[in-house]
Amino acid sequence: MNAFGTSRSITHTQATGMLIATAIMWSLGGWLIKSIDLNPLAIAGTRSAIAALIILLFIRRPNLTWSRVQVATAISYSLVVILFVAANRLTTATNAIMLQYTAPIYVAFLAHYFLKERTTRYDWLIVSTTIGGIALFFMEQIGPSGLLGNILAILSGISFACFTVLMRMQKDGSPLESVFLGNVFTAIIGLPFLVVNLPQSADWPPLLILGVVQLGIPYILYSLAIKHVSALDAILVPVLEPLLNPFWVFLWIGETPGVWALLGALVVLSSVTARYFFRRPNPRTTQLRPR
């Protein structure tokens, strides 16, 4: 028993609330990452090391089965967080987060074939509209640095989609162990880069917030919630993240997204928001049921 009770006591509404809270905490990533002058891998490794400790305190005795699904989930998670940090250093926060949210496109395909969760015609319409919005991001920042950041952000989105589906595949188990293992993998990969450039005293507050508030706590909530929602909902409900992420960066750092990026963000956000609010969740696919 943990502070949230057993997973079976969580309703679909509560799970949705957890995902919204998760999105708000995730949205701090762009601002905090850009406020730290370290190698992207060093940032990713340090925040994951901190997050691993937070998750370990929560689960106390992790059940590491080293199954194919658990290891694959951990690897996909590690790719998500590493690629997202690198993208934030190479392109704007708006581009990094919005291009990561190409993930619903891939989840729509993957959930249908691997989870047998029905993807409706309306879902495909939303996915198609989202693709159109994403294309607008490439109307600007076509220099080598901006382009590379955009590509890494898209790869982060693909990894995020794989992670979401793999987490949902563990709905009858304990997917949080996969997140814990993924943070351990990321820490092992990234921490050696601290040797080249050690954090300054000003770097530690944002690193601690990244590890505890932006990564550790929200992924605990996400791991609990995903057992009670469909994979597509789990990727679309946190729509507040791409909305708030560039706002914090603009507020604290003054980074202003371009006109095409803002237009693309509007299209993508409108699409995923419409999908969630104008189509009620199907209880057959959103409730936890033993197979």
Q: Span from first to last CA?
A: 24 Å
Measured on Cα atoms, how large is the radius of gyration? 18 Å
Q: Please state the structural category.
A: mainly alpha
Provide the domain count: 1
| Topology, number of strands | 0
Order of helices and strands: HHHHHHHHHHHHHH
Task: Explain how this protein is built.
- By secondary structure, the chain is an all-alpha fold.
- It has one domain (12-281).
- The chain is 70% helix and 0% strand.
- The chain contains 14 helices and no strands.
List keywords for this structure.
291 residues; 14 helices; disordered N terminus
In a nutshell, what does this entry contain?
The chain is 70% helix and 0% strand. The protein has 14 helices and no strands.
What's the SSE blueprint?
Elements: H1 12-26, H2 29-34, H3 40-59, H4 68-90, H5 93-100, H6 103-115, H7 121-135, H8 144-169, H9 176-190, H10 204-225, H11 231-236, H12 240-252, H13 259-277, H14 283-286
